[in-house]
Structure formats: structure tokens, C-alpha cells
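testing teh design pipeline on a random one, pls ignore if ur not involved
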């Protein structure tokens, strides 16, 4: 009887170890993750609007056709970036992902509380190198720290009615994602 209990316990323990190892390792071996799928169509440090998904074809799986979507594939190796997204009438959200598809920050139009979502994206090291400016407070400037140098920013605007799809599309098309020194030069 004890032998059967030990075998059962050993089998459950081995199954648990195999299960956990699979869950941890499998995402790192995937070749068709979001970053890999979007690399051919999304230039670095610029916003590209994604085509409306259809039942037969979608750039990403499980895309909601009620949202107009855009993506910015970023690279912070050359310096921080500035993101500006005008809000739509219904709902606008911005989500940040590492190049391994790990979500690390999200904001929507309601939490931004303005007519546009504006923020600076940088690494922790770039944030530490910034000079302290007494005129600019933390409330005036939203800074998001990226855990990796490369990643994705997903921009979505809701079209609650088919007649409002063009409005939602204009909102995501007007989004800007560019290096901070380029953004200063365009003002």
C-alpha cells in the first residue's frame, strides 16, 4: 500500500514539474509572437494603423472589430520616446508590451483625463539620467519606464457603432510615436 502511495506521489510530483517547466519555457520558444508578426509591417519608432480584422484574415489573433487599432514598434537604444494619442469620443486605450509580449503598463482616456494621452517612454537608466527640472512636476509629465529596449505599444479606439468607425480610425491614425529629440525638433 505504501509503495502505491509513493508511486502516486512521485507521479504527481513529476507531472507538476513537467507542467511548470512547460508553462515557463514554452513562451520563449514561440516563433509567431506579436512582436515577430508585426516586425515585417511595422517600422521602428512610428505608428502604423492595422487593417480592420475580418473572419478570414487578421494581423493578430482575437482582434476585436469594434476597435480601430494601431501599433508602434519601439526601440529605445537611441534615446527616450514621446507618445501622443488623441482620444476618441468613445474610448481610447494604450497598452505597452515588451518584445516578449509581457504587458507592463496600460492607460486609457479616462485615467489620462485630457484630450490626448501624452507620455514619455524610456528605460530606467534613461530616466535616471534626466536632469531635474523644477518647473516640471511629476503631475505635468507622465513617464513610463520600459523594462526592455524594444517592445510594442498597442493603441485602440472604440467605435461603438459601425457609423463611428471612421472617427475611431482617425483617432489612432493621428497618434505619434517618435524619439524625444525628434519630437522637440518638430515643435
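output:
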Amino acid at each position: 500500500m505504501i509503495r502505491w502511495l509513493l508511486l502516486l506521489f512521485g507521479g504527481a510530483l513529476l507531472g507538476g514539474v513537467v507542467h511548470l517547466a512547460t508553462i515557463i519555457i514554452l513562451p520563449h520558444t514561440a516563433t509567431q509572437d506579436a512582436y515577430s508578426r508585426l516586425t515585417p509591417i511595422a517600422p521602428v519608432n512610428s505608428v502604423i494603423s492595422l487593417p480592420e480584422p475580418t473572419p478570414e484574415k487578421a494581423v493578430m489573433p482575437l482582434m476585436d472589430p469594434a476597435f480601430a487599432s494601431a501599433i508602434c514598434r519601439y526601440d529605445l537604444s537611441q534615446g527616450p520616446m514621446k507618445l501622443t494619442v488623441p482620444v476618441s469620443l468613445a474610448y481610447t486605450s494604450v497598452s505597452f508590451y515588451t518584445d516578449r509580449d509581457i504587458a507592463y503598463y496600460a492607460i486609457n482616456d479616462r485615467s489620462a483625463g485630457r484630450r490626448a494621452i501624452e507620455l514619455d517612454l524610456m528605460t530606467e537608466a534613461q530616466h535616471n539620467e534626466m536632469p531635474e527640472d523644477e518647473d516640471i512636476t511629476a503631475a505635468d509629465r507622465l513617464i513610463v519606464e520600459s523594462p526592455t529596449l524594444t517592445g510594442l505599444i498597442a493603441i485602440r479606439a472604440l467605435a461603438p457603432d459601425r457609423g463611428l468607425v471612421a472617427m475611431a480610425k482617425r483617432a489612432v491614425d493621428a497618434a505619434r510615436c517618435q524619439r524625444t529629440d525628434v519630437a522637440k525638433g518638430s515643435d
